[in-house]
Amino acid sequence: MVFNEMELHKVDGVESNGLAEDSEYDPFRHRRVKKPTSTNGTIIHMLKGSLGTGILAMPSAFRNGGLVFGVIGTTLVGLIYAHCVYLLVSTSQKSCKRTRTPLLGFSETAQSVFRHGPESTQRFANAAKAYIDYSLLIVSFFSVCVYLLFIATTLHDVVNSKLEIDWDTRIYILLTAVPLIFVTQVRDLRYLVPFSALANALILATFAITLYYIFREPINLSGLRLFPEITALPSFFGTVVYAVEGIGVVLPVENKMKHPEHFLACPGVLGVVLSFITVLYNVTGFFGYARYGAATHATVTLDLPNDEWLALSTQLLAAVAILFTLGIYYYVPMDILWRKVKHLFVPERHNLAQVTIRFGILVAMTGLALGVPELEPFIGLVGSICSATLGLLTPIVLDTVFRWPTAGAFGRYRWKLVKNLILMAFGLFILVVGTYFSIKDIVDIYG
């Protein structure tokens, strides 16, 4: 997104007069955000972006990684992800300064970095923007599919146990899709906010009751795996990256801050949120696996006893919370998609087109869930493909392109370039190897 000189623009409620008269442009001073978010409010939004049902999958990740390596690996992923968020926000802020723009979103940052980068990258500016938009679409829609599987798997375990029936998970996938026909048709964010707030309260209640079951009896660590098998590493990292990653909300949240300089400060929003998330995920994963051992399911709520109503209510609370949250998860990709395709329809057909597209995508996601009704390999696949690409690789690439080939931009002995290459190798490992083993697990189950 490029602003022409002295031309008035509005971006997400922000006004700018284009290029500033200051010789040293400060984008923070030129932001005019309607109803800006406080620093504490930003922390809450960031926590909501990273703290979701992924935390319930952490015991499964530790089952693959082992107790010792699980802690080390989760902490490592937390540090790497925090650094990648730092790179993304820092690059966006520097791009704002270079182009004299008050703020840039995720895809606009990618476009700006490539457009004003080395000559060889400039022709890829629009492609970079489109890549981010479509990647966010894929991440969001895959997440809808994972959550659909989560609800169906939970209903399968609870209902089959209490009614003593033997319905296949696919039946519950179809039953879950019925209310989603209506939920996914909601287009006004105002009507989704109360459901999102209720979903957050239900998730917290679910987490609290789950911790009660984990700690209500002494935990015995004997006989538990401490380190992973090599073949289990991709699944471990894929699940952890999926659980921690929430890159899509980072720049929208930072752009709405009253004091955006607090985001990367030390200590700042990023440090506080990611430190808390890393500790919480380590505790949940370590003690969840320590409690349930090799029998740990893809989500820890499925490990709770089926003969106690409190445990069953926890599983149902989690399922209902996800059902309420799906409207929000559907809103973001549909907003991106509709902006790209609405010009294909005459205005009189916009309403029918939206209804049809929303329903068609839900049918596609339901079909995918019916084809792969096993939750665990699907979580690993989404984490490997989507989260590794957006959350790890993209910020590293943008930082590298932005610095290239400015003299001294990579530091002494080009250590920042070496660091970026090492992180990029880790991201490619998650992407390639994790995707391979996740697909292999799915093929082994249904092959």
Architecture overview:
- This protein has helices spanning 39-50, 58-65, 67-99, 106-115, 119-122, 125-163, 169-183, 189-215, 233-244, 250-255, 269-292, 309-341, 350-371, 375-403, 415-446, and strands spanning 9-11, 14-16.
- The protein has 447 residues and is mostly helical.
- It has a two-stranded antiparallel sheet.
Write the SSE topology.
Layout: E1 9-11, E2 14-16, H1 39-50, H2 58-65, H3 67-99, H4 106-115, H5 119-122, H6 125-163, H7 169-183, H8 189-215, H9 233-244, H10 250-255, H11 269-292, H12 309-341, H13 350-371, H14 375-403, H15 415-446
Antiparallel strand pairs: 1-2
Helix pairs in contact: 1-11, 2-3, 2-9, 2-11, 3-4, 3-9, 3-11, 3-14, 4-6, 4-14, 6-7, 6-12, 6-13, 6-14, 7-13, 8-12, 9-14, 9-15, 14-15
The portion of residues assigned to helices is 55-70%
Multimerization status:
single chain
Number of distinct beta strands: 2
Q: Which structural class is indicated by helix and strand composition?
A: mainly alpha
Strand content: under 5%
| Distance, first to last CA | 47 Å
Gross morphology is globular
Q: What is the C-alpha radius of gyration, as a whole number of Å?
A: 22 Å
Mean pLDDT: 82
Number of helices: 15
**Mind describing the biggest β-sheet?**
2 strands, antiparallel
Contiguous uncertain segments of 5+ residues: 1-22
Biggest sheet, strands in spatial order? 1-2
- The ordered H/E elements are EEHHHHHHHHHHHHHHH
